[in-house]
């Protein structure tokens, strides 16, 4: 089963390598990982999408805790949470496809952020299923390039991994 | 007061109570060595950096203090990796200082540059690259604190040349402050009560004790608990000595080369109490059939050890010694008669297993059996010595036939299985205890992996006695080839080996040889009487095997008993 976990870490040299090395060294999967500074510049928050049965998830969380630079690990699956991902999609733009590209962008509340004589680049953000749907619909129009940020996530309401 | 980085390092070591350092100098650590030249710290110059780390490790295992080593950058640092991995697998507290090229050159492929922090990330508890001399004292404080606290382990501190040359105000912190590190020492009382209830209700209880009991200094509490509640005890390879091997409640070691009674007991017990042990595959055999009837209680300071390999029914995260004290406090006075009847039956069963298959070998008149050498070492010393081993058959025979009644007398690479560990580890233990008898039980293969340390032994008058069980083979691999590869001895015969007696002589040590059983004891007695380092070459039966043996992946009840 897929899990989204938040990992609050000290914003120090080598921490990303420690976390990534832990996953690769112990054979855990990383579907996506995104990391950036929090409101406190001494801390960074990682959002990691991983998968495994209960025993593997328990190990992943305990092993992350064991790293000296890791302050807090939250399995977001345990409560309600928000998640978002952003995708940039560069599609072939011809006279026939241009209206469809614009229509799809509008339906998904995306926007065209770059235009060239032969391509449109569309930016869309949203939860995972929305991103998947967008990509499926753009596919027949001739997608040249896709770049995704990976998921960022936080619990709903007052509980925050940073607090 | 303003000091250079090198001075800060040496002052900080003194503050940590370090009196012995194992090391090897080189370009970027020259400033540190210059300070050591007239510092009040003993430096043992090894002959290979790997040995420096193993020696610090042996020092730590024997004494319980943090072992310390110092090497230069690049190859000096990479040579320590095996030593770090060995200590990491066995949770041994040590701090290794490595030199590094100046911060301005890092990443430039400078001469003798290696990204040792990157290389050792997976085989240290934590590691540091110190980029500013003002961070040095704090980093050293943290390194020692991390090494010895919680589940202990090796910590590496990488010191660029400009950091040891640069100057900073020196003040050694009183305590390390680490926001993300907070080991749990006290076991949860509710869980402890639950565990005690299960133990008291058990009809066939068994304690399964690992190295964690020794690391936490819990041998006394463990022995008391087992005796008060009449609980039989089996130990892992790492746990030997945590409980007296000569106690009637002791079943010996379990696992691949464990005793028949220990493996039968773990397979039939109804409550298994794992204490500072981690359910290693060499212990469990086929995991699905390990302790199939047991409610499993697991005491460990490291939460990741719990439910990693085996589902645990009653986990207790905490320091073994603290948890055992709580158990003892609650256990006093709880010994109803009904329990005695069940236990008598269980102890009777164990005694019957003991009689069915005793640990035994057949020492004839002509050829020395390796087990006999181990037993004679035990007899000649009365067991009052520190024993290290290399890895393979020598290690298993030592574990099986030497009886350990006290903790910190047994130094062996359990997790990583590092050939070449035993001799430098013995030197480290001897440096910690100059008056102790220290014996390295070795094989003719393993000893050659760090044999250069004979020079260190002679230079520092470390009178370690090396007992080479010389069978002309890489014996354990040969044994697997015999059993599972149709006796095809592919590249396990050591056709050429040095003359160990002449070799010892060449280094200025004493070399002795025994080729017949009746020569074994006189050689041992002569070695023990000699004040300096000795290498004993025992020509033993070439194809003797280690038994019992549970083939890899088989359940513990399927022992080869030959």
Q: How would you sum up this structure, described in words?
A:
- The complex is a heterodimer of chains A (163) and B (562).
- Chain A has 163 residues and is α+β, with helices and mostly antiparallel strands.
- Helices cover 28% and strands 40% of the residues of chain A.
- The mean pLDDT of chain A is 94.
- Chain B has 22 helices and 20 strands.
- Chain B has a six-stranded parallel beta sheet, with helices on both faces. In chain B, strands 11-10-9-12-13-14 form a six-stranded parallel beta sheet, with helices on both faces. A six-stranded parallel beta sheet of chain B has the order 16-15-17-18-20-19, with helices on both faces.
- In chain B, α1 packs across α2, α1 runs parallel beside α7 and α16 packs across α17.
- Chain B is globular.
- Chains A and B meet through α1 and α2 of A and loops of B.
Strands ordered across the widest β-sheet of chain B: 3-2-4-5-7-6
**Number of β-strand runs of chain A:** 9
Low-confidence stretches of chain B: none
Distance between the termini of chain B: 69 Å
Identify the notable features of this structure and list them briefly.
heterodimer, A: 163 residues, alpha+beta, five-stranded antiparallel β-sheet, 4 helices, 28% helix, elongated, B: 562 residues, alpha/beta, six-stranded parallel β-sheet, 22 helices, 20 strands, 38% helix
């Amino acid at each position: 089963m897929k899990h989204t976990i938040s990992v609050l870490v000290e914003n120090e040299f080598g921490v990303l390598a420690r976390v990534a090395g832990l996953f690769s060294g112990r054979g855990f999967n990383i579907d996506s990982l995104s990391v950036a500074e929090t409101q406190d510049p001494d801390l960074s928050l990682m959002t990691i999408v991983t998968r495994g049965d209960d025993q593997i998830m328990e190990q992943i969380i305990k092993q992350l805790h064991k790293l000296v630079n890791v302050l807090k690990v939250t399995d977001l699956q345990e409560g309600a949470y928000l998640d978002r991902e952003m995708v940039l999609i560069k599609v072939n733009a011809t006279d026939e496809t241009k209206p469809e590209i614009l229509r799809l962008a509008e339906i998904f509340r995306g926007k065209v952020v770059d235009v060239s004589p032969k391509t449109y680049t569309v930016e869309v953000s949203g939860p995972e299923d929305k991103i998947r749907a967008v990509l499926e619909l753009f596919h027949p129009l001739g997608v040249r390039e896709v770049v995704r940020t990976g998921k960022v996530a936080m619990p709903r309401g007052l509980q925050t991994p940073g607090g | 007061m303003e000091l250079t980085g090198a001075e800060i390092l040496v002052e900080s070591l003194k503050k940590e109570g370090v009196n012995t350092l194992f090391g090897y100098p080189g370009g970027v650590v020259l400033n540190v060595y210059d300070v050591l030249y007239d510092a009040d710290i003993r430096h043992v110059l090894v002959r290979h950096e790997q040995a420096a780390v193993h020696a610090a490790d042996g020092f730590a295992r024997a004494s319980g203090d943090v072992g310390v080593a110092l090497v230069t950058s690049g190859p000096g640092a990479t040579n320590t990796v095996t030593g770090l991995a060995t200590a990491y697998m066995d949770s041994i507290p040590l701090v290794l200082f490595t030199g590094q090229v100046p911060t301005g050159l890092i990443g430039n492929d400078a001469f003798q540059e290696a990204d040792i922090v990157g290389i050792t990330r997976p085989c240290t508890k934590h590691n540091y690259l110190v980029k500013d001399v003002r961070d040095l004292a704090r980093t050293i404080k943290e390194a020692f604190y991390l090494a010895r606290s919680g589940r202990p382990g090796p910590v590496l501190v990488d010191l660029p040349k400009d950091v040891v040359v640069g100057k900073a105000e020196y003040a050694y912190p009183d305590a390390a402050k680490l926001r993300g590190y907070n080991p749990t020492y006290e076991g949860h009382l509710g869980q402890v009560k639950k565990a005690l209830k299960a133990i008291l209700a058990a009809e066939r209880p068994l304690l399964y004790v690992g190295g964690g009991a020794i690391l936490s200094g819990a041998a006394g509490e463990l022995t008391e608990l087992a005796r008060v509640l009449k609980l039989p005890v089996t130990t892992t390879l790492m746990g030997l000595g945590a409980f007296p091997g000569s106690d009637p409640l002791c079943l010996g070691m379990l696992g691949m080369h464990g005793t028949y009674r220990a493996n039968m007991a773990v397979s039939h017990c109804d409550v298994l109490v794992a204490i500072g042990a981690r359910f290693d595959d060499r212990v469990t055999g086929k995991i699905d059939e390990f302790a199939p009837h047991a409610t499993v209680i697991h005491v460990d300071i490291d939460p990741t050890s719990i439910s990693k390999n085996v589902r645990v029914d009653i986990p207790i995260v905490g320091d073994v010694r603290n948890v055992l004290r709580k158990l003892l406090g609650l256990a006093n006075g709880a010994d109803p008669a009904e329990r005695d009847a069940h236990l008598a039956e269980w102890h009777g069963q164990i005694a019957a297993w003991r009689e069915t298959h005793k640990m035994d070998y057949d020492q004839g008149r002509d050829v020395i059996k390796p087990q006999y050498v181990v037993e004679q070492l035990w007899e000649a010393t009365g067991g009052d010595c520190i024993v290290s081993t290399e890895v393979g058959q020598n290690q298993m025979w030592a574990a099986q036939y030497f009886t350990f009644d006290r903790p910190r007398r047994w130094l062996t690479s359990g997790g990583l299985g590092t050939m070449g560990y035993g001799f430098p580890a013995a030197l480290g233990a001897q440096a910690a205890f100059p008056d102790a008898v220290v014996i390295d039980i070795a094989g003719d293969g393993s000893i050659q992996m760090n044999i250069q340390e004979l020079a260190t032994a002679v230079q520092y008058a470390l009178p370690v006695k090396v007992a080479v069980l010389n069978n002309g083979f890489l014996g354990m691999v040969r044994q697997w080839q015999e059993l599972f590869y149709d006796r095809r001895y592919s590249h396990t015969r050591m056709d050429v080996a040095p003359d160990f007696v002449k070799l010892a002589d060449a280094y200025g040590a004493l070399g002795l040889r025994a080729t017949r059983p009746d020569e074994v004891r006189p050689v041992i007695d002569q070695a023990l009487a000699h004040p300096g380092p000795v290498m004993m070459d025992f020509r033993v039966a070439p194809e003797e095997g280690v038994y019992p043996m549970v083939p890899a992946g088989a359940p513990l009840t399927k022992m080869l008993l030959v």
